[in-house]
Amino acid sequence: MHLDVQDLRNFYYREPLGRAAQRALRNKVLQFWPDLSGQTIAGFGFATPLLRPFLPQARRVIALMPGPQGVLAWPNPSQNVSVLTDERFWPLETGHVDRLIVLHGLETSEDANTLLQEAYRVLGPGGRALFIVPNRAGLWSRSDKTPMGFGRPYSTSQLETQLRLHGFMPQKALAALFQIPSNRRSWQKMGPFLERIGNRLPRLAGGVLMLEVSTRTPPLPGLKTPVLRARPLRVLEGLRAADPKPALERAKERC
Fold first, then answer.
1. How far is CA 240 from the centre of its chain?
2. What digits encode the pLDDT tens for the residues 151-195?
3. Which of 15-24, 58-67, 72-81, 230-239 has the lowest mean pLDDT?
4. Cα Rg for the chain, rounded, in angstroms?
C-alpha cells in the first residue's frame, strides 16, 4: 500500500523529524555518489528529497512517482521534472539511466517483481541503483509516525536475495537514521550526534537499509566458451603403423 504524496511531503518538508531524516539520508547518498556530473539520474517512489543535490550537476533528473501515491510538481511548477507513472511501466527508454534511487517504492509496491524488472531495464551499462528500505530490526519500522512504519521492512539478507533474483549484484550496504524517531526536542538535539556515530554502531540499529547494486550483464546468445577435451595418449600408434597386420594373421603366414 503506497502512502499519499501529501503525507510524504508534509513529513520530509514540514516536520522537524522529517527534515532531520532528509539530511541524514542525503548525506549517505552523497557518500555513495559524490559526483554525478553529466549523468542521467532517476528516482522512483518519493525520492525527491534526495535528488535535489544533483540538479545543478546532472545532465537530467527524473522523479517517477507511482499512481497510487500521487504526484507533486518538483522542484517547482516552471521546471517540473516529476511524472506520474504506473510502477509496472516506466516512461523511460531501455538503458537510459545512469543512477537510480528507490525510496518508498519497493516496500510499498503491489508488484515488486515487475518493479524490479523495470528498474533493471532502464539502467544502462555500468549503471547503478540505490535501494532504501525500512530496516526490519530498527525502531523506525515500528513507528507509524514515520513513512518507514508502512510497507514491508527488510533485513539485509532479504533485500540482497530479492535483488539477486532480478539480476542485480550487491556492491555496498549501509544503514542510516540512527536517531530516535521522535519529535521531542531532547531527542532532536541528540539526532546529529547519533548520526555521526552511526557508522560505528551495528547495522541493526539503523532505521533504514541502503543497498547499492549494479546490473549483471547476461551472456550474449550464440557465444559459447569452447570446452577443451582431454586428448587420448596414442602410445602404440607407431607399432600399428609399422605392421598393420594383426598378430594372428602373421602367425598363419609363417605356418
1. 65
2. 899 999 999 999 999 999 999 999 999 988 888 887 777 777 877
3. 230-239
4. 29
Give the phi and the psi of residue 170 in degrees, each rounded to 5: -60, 135
Question: Residue 41 above 90 pLDDT?
Answer: yes
How crowded is residue 182: how many other Cβ atoms within 10 Å of its Cβ? 17
DSSP strand pairing (168-176 vs 82-85) = unpaired
- In single-letter form, the type of residue at position 11 comes to F
Residue identified by cell 547495522 is: 203
What does DSSP assign to residue 77?
A: G
**Domains of the chain and any CATH numbers:** 5-215 (3.40.50.150)
Q: Copy the grid coordinates of residue 202.
A: 551495528
Q: What does pTM read for this prediction?
A: 0.83
Nearest CA among 12, 7, 16 for reference residue 191: 16
For 20-49, b where at least 16 C-beta lie within 10 A, e where not — what string? bbbebbbebbeeebeebeebbbbbbbbbbb
At residue 155, φ and ψ (nearest 5 deg) are -100, 165
pLDDT score at 194: 79
pLDDT at 204 > cutoff 80: no
Q: Which residues pair with 97 in a beta bridge?
A: 123
Instruction: Measure Cα distances from 72 to 92, 145, 212 in Å.
Output: 19, 21, 26
